[in-house]
Amino acid sequence: MKSSKTAICLLAMLFASQTFANEVSTDLQTTCIQEQLNEHKEIKGHPLEAGDFTEYCKCETDYITRKATKQQLSKLSTKQDPSPPWLVRLKAKAPKICFEQKKPTTT
């Protein structure tokens, strides 16, 4: 009986943790897309849409969530500081990682 209560408790904690991670990830990706649209709005002759940045922003978000600690992500979710220094540093490193992943390999 005790083991089934423990298992239920662990499952609930796992579900809550995964839900939190998904919410943070969604927020980061949405913010990234908005930032990219704002940064590239001056490009003439090519109307930009959110979908133009989805792949890049997913990569950036994945990179940030892999490199940041749970504590950092938790603070980010409270929106106390929308651009803490650690997030700025990770966002600065993300383009190199994400663009390298997209490069075709030559043989």
State the end-to-end CA separation.
Answer: 59 Å
Number of helices: 4
What is the total number of structural domains? 1
Total beta strands: 0
User: Class by helix and strand content?
Assistant: mainly alpha
Over all CA atoms, what is the radius of gyration? 18 Å
Question: Quick one: overall form?
Answer: globular
Sequence stretches where pLDDT stays below 50 over 5 or more residues: 9-18
Estimated helix fraction: over 70%
Mean pLDDT: 79
What's the short version?
The protein is an all-alpha fold and 107 residues long.
Write the layout of secondary structure elements.
Elements: H1 2-39, H2 54-67, H3 70-77, H4 85-102
Helix pairs in contact: 1-2, 1-3, 2-4
Structure description:
The chain is mostly helical. It has one domain (2-102). Helices cover 73% and strands 0% of the residues. The chain is built from four helices and no strands. The chain has helices spanning 2-39, 54-67, 70-77, 85-102. Helix 1 packs across helix 2, helix 1 packs across helix 3 (70-77) and helix 2 (54-67) packs across helix 4. The relative contact order is 0.11.
